[in-house]
């Protein structure tokens, strides 16, 4: 077998003539290469070792492992040697590149099931082999599944990119690669746990979805958001409506992989016996036809590179540049992980430091006042209910690392229970300007439960500017992430050192659970709410990439974002101009942060009402009426304050209109509508408080 | 695999029978057989079949758990029948997968306690030349990684590690870690590192006894033109030199001008990573309260360049502790440079 073959390649770099780039990444570039002594085509991966911080242990270990593996579905290193501070790894050349490249070039919406089946089966065989030999791949994804012209499928990149696990050089890593943990299993993202071979099975399931849709479920979100979604949301999966073309056994197989409890995931060996893989054709038959009429791999890569460059050039703002980089990293299939939670947090906190654009400074200012506000409210809370504070805070701390299991579990249960209804109650799009407002107000009574359903309207058409918007809204949300984080820091300054956004989530979960148990009047709203985390994720996934991105903001931050639905709806309806969107979104995300605060307060209040009921325990029904009353009062109080903020921000916005002369008219229209709506909101609140 | 397994289980062998069969089949790989293609093929088939049977008995087959009694018996028998020596000597002849399986079996048996003794370890202690054989295998890239794996299993045990440290073959590692094959060199480096860090007292003893020779060799690694060698050896140096049991070695090391010069050169290395690692050893030279006069002289002579260099070191992203240390070291260098009595 392959064992003896590697000796036939020399260790002299002069014997290798590097040709076109066929893959490139943060610290490694892969070249199509002629091995001169035999005139053979190989691939050479040049890895810049000096870009790898701390020590080279990982790279060493992987080099050893890579030489010891031998399986037809695994890329084996023929040999590797050091050239200056580069490590050259000589590998077989896979003429059609990665599945990811192929999808980007020719199959943006994913492959057919027959093709996916073949690719997945070959990949799974490789995983079975690795696991049997005690190895974990750690980076299963479409970008690492390589195809050859004859249809041969091989799993690649056996951790040669391991240096990206490092966290040493943050500045550098932040600027050059911002990976997303899309393929990472929930348990991997929790500190204190590492890679079990079952984590590969999760990644395998994500990869299946990636091949089916053309992109990984959470691929368009910033890393932090993906991290939180993976931990907190229901596992991604197929959508009932959009994915009708896929067979039941395929869906079932994927669902088996994407179980949060890793002990319940099947082994690779067992998964191979699944009925889905029984009927799969050999890749020589199904995969080969994919490449018909496609240009050569290197020209494809070149095209993608140019696209990236154009994309980068388009983005003028530093923050969007970052986003663009991270997106292009994704598109290239770069193995750009950043496994370090600290690092992710650090990245988030860095975003603001670097961005010099005025509007962000504005946000900054605004944040200050907001934080004060938040501080005040929390201290008020503290004064009132010290024991509650304890409870809330300690659980928040816990949740930064590991969300208490119970919460996750109950999350599941609720979601499962509601799944059936959710897609139906959910789907009617709230397109008119009025609807969202109503939803918003409803969300107050429902304790901010309802609001997420709005943006998830599937019917919205995508304009050209949608992608622009997507990028920007994403960067916005990134900033927002970090603002929320900041707010937390302020709030919990004495005891808290590394806040993530999880606290919100945790408390929201709590809220979620108890509201579920409470009364049937709330149930409709809750349904709407939960559909976001379960069904709608699928729904979004099924839609186009860009849309995913623009809608994306909602999913994770649903609890904090409710009112921002308004500009989105408007924007999708009226404005082709992408320039306006960020500002509007910006504005409303501010509000949404405040909304978040309300949710936090509510959950705290709720806890106090529930007495010593546990986080997931049922609160006694008797509590509800008075509970609702007090909450409503508090809400309308806060709401008024929020509306003041909104109008404040709107004032700022009008100054920006000068820069936006071409779009001015439309902008004015919009603003008017916004004003109208906030008035409505105020009206409503008044009514609400009166009642 | 399943095919061979069925074959093996047709006549379920007892551990004794299996050990005997393994021995016979390995012995069949003699020089005459190896020279003849057909005969070798057949003999190899037999060997591989037996290795698979052994692996199933030792590690189970994924469904059936291994029987502890059988494991013990097989281990004991393999030792008593001198099969271990056969394993090691015949390893180069075996095929790729067979080698891997054999290494797997080997590491299970090595850890196997039979009647309160580790009979495999005892066997190795009685046949230490086998360890030398394994070390030399690094020169054969076909089996280097397999032998390296076996070797690292062995040196988990202090007695065996001590033997290699003090054996002449240890010196070979200075060559192996620089082999052009990155995977082999990496494996050798892993073993080298384990040898120098796993068993403190043995290492301390070895370094005391072989101080001059060892550091002479080690300096070659630190000044190697190979980037990876420089970077790894520097890192490893701080890992064993700065360990408490080796403090006497460290004191001796930092009193020598030659070593300081090497570190100062590494501070100027083109690689930032190397510079930072070098700093972590360089700082000990400077922080030494009993700096010899020669050391002070060099620091004083170069203080301007040193300060400029340190000032730029680790810009962007090093932690607070690093910055603090840097500050201290820079102050100390300034202090040394102002000592008037050095200038005479």
TrEMBL record, chain A:
<feature type="domain" description="Protein kinase">
    <location>
        <begin position="16"/>
        <end position="277"/>
    </location>
</feature>
<protein>
    <recommendedName>
        <fullName>Protein kinase domain-containing protein</fullName>
    </recommendedName>
</protein>
<feature type="compositionally biased region" description="Basic and acidic residues">
    <location>
        <begin position="466"/>
        <end position="488"/>
    </location>
</feature>
<feature type="compositionally biased region" description="Basic and acidic residues">
    <location>
        <begin position="409"/>
        <end position="419"/>
    </location>
</feature>
<dbReference type="Pfam" id="PF00069">
    <property type="entry name" value="Pkinase"/>
</dbReference>
<dbReference type="GO" id="GO:0005524">
    <property type="term" value="F:ATP binding"/>
</dbReference>
<dbReference type="InterPro" id="IPR017441">
    <property type="entry name" value="Protein_kinase_ATP_BS"/>
</dbReference>
<dbReference type="InterPro" id="IPR011009">
    <property type="entry name" value="Kinase-like_dom_sf"/>
</dbReference>
<feature type="coiled-coil region">
    <location>
        <begin position="646"/>
        <end position="673"/>
    </location>
</feature>
<dbReference type="InterPro" id="IPR000719">
    <property type="entry name" value="Prot_kinase_dom"/>
</dbReference>
<comment type="similarity">
    <text>Belongs to the protein kinase superfamily. STE Ser/Thr protein kinase family. STE20 subfamily.</text>
</comment>
<keyword id="KW-0067">ATP-binding</keyword>
<keyword id="KW-0547">Nucleotide-binding</keyword>
<dbReference type="InterPro" id="IPR047173">
    <property type="entry name" value="STRAD_A/B-like"/>
</dbReference>
<feature type="region of interest" description="Disordered">
    <location>
        <begin position="392"/>
        <end position="504"/>
    </location>
</feature>
<keyword id="KW-0175">Coiled coil</keyword>
<feature type="binding site">
    <location>
        <position position="45"/>
    </location>
    <ligand>
        <name>ATP</name>
    </ligand>
</feature>
<dbReference type="GO" id="GO:0004672">
    <property type="term" value="F:protein kinase activity"/>
</dbReference>
<dbReference type="GO" id="GO:0043539">
    <property type="term" value="F:protein serine/threonine kinase activator activity"/>
</dbReference>
TrEMBL record, chain B:
<dbReference type="GO" id="GO:0035556">
    <property type="term" value="P:intracellular signal transduction"/>
</dbReference>
<dbReference type="InterPro" id="IPR016024">
    <property type="entry name" value="ARM-type_fold"/>
</dbReference>
<comment type="similarity">
    <text>Belongs to the Mo25 family.</text>
</comment>
<dbReference type="GO" id="GO:0043539">
    <property type="term" value="F:protein serine/threonine kinase activator activity"/>
</dbReference>
<dbReference type="InterPro" id="IPR011989">
    <property type="entry name" value="ARM-like"/>
</dbReference>
<dbReference type="Pfam" id="PF08569">
    <property type="entry name" value="Mo25"/>
</dbReference>
<dbReference type="InterPro" id="IPR013878">
    <property type="entry name" value="Mo25"/>
</dbReference>
<protein>
    <recommendedName>
        <fullName>Calcium-binding protein 39-like</fullName>
    </recommendedName>
</protein>
């Amino acid at each position: 077998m392959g064992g003896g073959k590697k000796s036939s390649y020399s260790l002299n770099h002069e014997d290798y003539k590097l040709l076109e780039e066929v893959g490139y990444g943060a610290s490694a570039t892969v070249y199509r290469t002629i091995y001169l002594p035999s005139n053979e085509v190989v691939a050479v991966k040049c890895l810049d070792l000096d870009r790898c911080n701390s020590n080279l242990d990982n790279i060493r270990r992987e080099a050893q492992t890579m030489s010891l593996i031998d399986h037809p579905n695994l890329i084996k290193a023929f040999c590797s040697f050091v050239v200056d501070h580069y490590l050259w790894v000589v590998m077989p050349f896979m003429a059609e590149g990665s599945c990811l490249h192929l999808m980007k070039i020719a199959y943006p919406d994913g492959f057919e099931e027959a093709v996916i089946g073949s690719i997945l089966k070959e990949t799974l065989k490789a995983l079975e082999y690795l696991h049997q030999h005690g190895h974990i791949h750690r980076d299963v994804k479409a970008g690492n599944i390589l195809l050859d012209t004859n249809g041969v499928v091989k799993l690649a990149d056996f951790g040669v990119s391991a240096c990206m696990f490092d966290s040493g050089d943050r500045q550098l890593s932040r600027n050059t690669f911002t990976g997303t943990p899309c393929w990472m299993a929930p348990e991997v993202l929790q500190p204190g746990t590492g890679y079990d071979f079952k984590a590969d099975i999760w990644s395998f399931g994500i990869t299946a979805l990636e091949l089916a849709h053309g992109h990984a479920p959470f691929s368009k979100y910033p890393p932090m958001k993906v991290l939180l979604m993976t931990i907190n949301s229901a596992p991604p999966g197929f959508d009932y409506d959009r994915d009708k073309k896929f067979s039941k056994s395929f869906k079932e197989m994927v669902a088996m992989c994407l179980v949060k409890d890793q002990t319940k995931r099947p082994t690779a060996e067992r998964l191979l016996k699944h009925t889905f893989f029984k009927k799969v054709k050999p890749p020589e038959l199904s995969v080969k036809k994919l490449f018909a009429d496609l240009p050569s791999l290197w020209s494809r890569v070149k095209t993608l590179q140019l696209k990236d460059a154009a994309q980068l050039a388009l983005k003028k703002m530093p923050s969007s540049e970052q986003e663009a980089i991270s997106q292009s990293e994704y598109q290239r299939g770069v193995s750009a992980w950043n496994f370090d939670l600290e690092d992710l947090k650090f990245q988030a906190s860095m975003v603001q430091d670097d961005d010099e654009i005025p509007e962000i400074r504005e946000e900054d200012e605004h944040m200050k006042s907001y934080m004060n506000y938040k501080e005040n409210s929390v201290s008020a809370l503290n004064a009132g209910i010290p024991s509650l504070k304890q409870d809330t805070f300690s659980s928040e701390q816990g949740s930064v690392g590991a969300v208490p299991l119970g919460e996750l579990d109950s999350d599941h249960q609720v979601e499962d229970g509601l799944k059936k209804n959710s897609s139906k109650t959910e789907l009617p799009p709230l397109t008119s300007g009025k609807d969202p407002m109503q939803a918003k107000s409803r969300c107050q009574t429902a304790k901010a439960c309802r609001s997420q359903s709005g943006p998830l309207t599937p019917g919205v058409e995508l304009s050209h500017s949608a992608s622009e918007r997507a990028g920007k809204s994403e960067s916005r949300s990134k900033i927002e992430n970090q603002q929320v984080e900041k707010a937390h820091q302020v709030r919990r300054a004495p005891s808290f050192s590394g806040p993530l956004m999880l606290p919100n989530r945790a408390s929201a979960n709590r809220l979620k659970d108890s509201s579920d148990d409470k009364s049937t009047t709330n149930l409709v709203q809750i349904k709407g709410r939960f559909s976001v985390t379960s069904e709608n994720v699928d729904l979004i996934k099924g839609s186009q990439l860009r849309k995913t991105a623009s809608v994306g903001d909602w999913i994770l931050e649903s609890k904090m974002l409710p009112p921002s639905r308004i500009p989105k709806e408007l924007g999708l309806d009226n404005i082709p101009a992408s320039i306006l969107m960020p500002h509007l979104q910006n504005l409303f995300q501010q509000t949404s942060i405040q909304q978040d605060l309300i949710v936090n307060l509510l959950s705290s209040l709720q806890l106090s009402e529930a007495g010593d009921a546990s986080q997931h325990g049922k609160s006694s029904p008797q509590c509800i009426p008075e509970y609702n009353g007090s909450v409503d009062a508090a809400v309308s109080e806060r709401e008024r304050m929020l509306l003041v903020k909104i109008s404040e921000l709107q004032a700022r916005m009008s100054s920006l209109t000068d820069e936006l002369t071409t779009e001015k008219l439309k902008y004015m229209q919009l603003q008017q509508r916004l004003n109208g709506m906030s008035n409505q909101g105020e009206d409503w609140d008044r009514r609400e408080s009166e009642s | 695999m399943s095919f061979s397994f069925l074959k093996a289980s047709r006549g379920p062998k007892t551990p004794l029978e299996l050990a005997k069969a393994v021995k016979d089949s390995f012995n069949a790989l003699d020089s005459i057989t190896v020279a003849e293609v057909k005969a070798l093929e057949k003999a190899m088939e037999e060997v591989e079949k037996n290795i698979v049977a052994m692996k199933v008995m030792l590690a189970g087959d994924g469904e059936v758990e291994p029987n502890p009694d059988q494991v013990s018996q097989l281990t004991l028998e393999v030792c008593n029948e001198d099969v271990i020596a056969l394993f090691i000597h015949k390893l180069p002849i075996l095929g790729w997968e067979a080698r891997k399986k054999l290494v797997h079996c080997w590491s299970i048996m090595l850890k196997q306690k039979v009647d309160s003794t580790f009979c495999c370890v005892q066997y190795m202690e009685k046949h230490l030349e086998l360890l030398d054989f394994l070390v030399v295998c690094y020169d054969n890239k076909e089996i280097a990684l397999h032998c390296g794996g076996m070797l690292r299993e062995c040196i988990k045990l202090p007695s065996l590690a001590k033997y290699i440290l003090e054996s002449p073959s240890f010196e070979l590692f200075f060559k192996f870690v620089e082999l052009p094959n990155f995977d082999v060199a990496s494996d050798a480096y892993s073993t080298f590192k384990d040898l120098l860090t796993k068993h403190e007292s043995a290492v301390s003893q070895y370094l005391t006894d072989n101080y001059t020779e060892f550091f002479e060799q080690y300096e070659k690694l630190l000044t190697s033109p190979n980037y990876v060698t420089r970077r790894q050896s520097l890192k490893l140096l701080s890992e064993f030199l700065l360990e408490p049991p080796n403090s006497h070695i460290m004191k001796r090391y930092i009193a020598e001008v030659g070593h300081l010069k090497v570190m100062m050169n590494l501070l100027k290395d083109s690689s930032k990573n190397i510079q930072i690692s070098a700093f972590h050893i360089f700082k000990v030279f400077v922080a030494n309260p009993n700096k010899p006069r020669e050391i002070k002289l060099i620091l004083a002579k170069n203080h301007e360049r040193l300060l400029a260099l340190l000032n730029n070191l680790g810009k962007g992203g090093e932690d607070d502790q690093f910055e603090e240390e840097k500050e201290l070291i820079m102050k100390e260098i300034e202090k040394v440079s102002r000592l008037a009595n050095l200038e005479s």
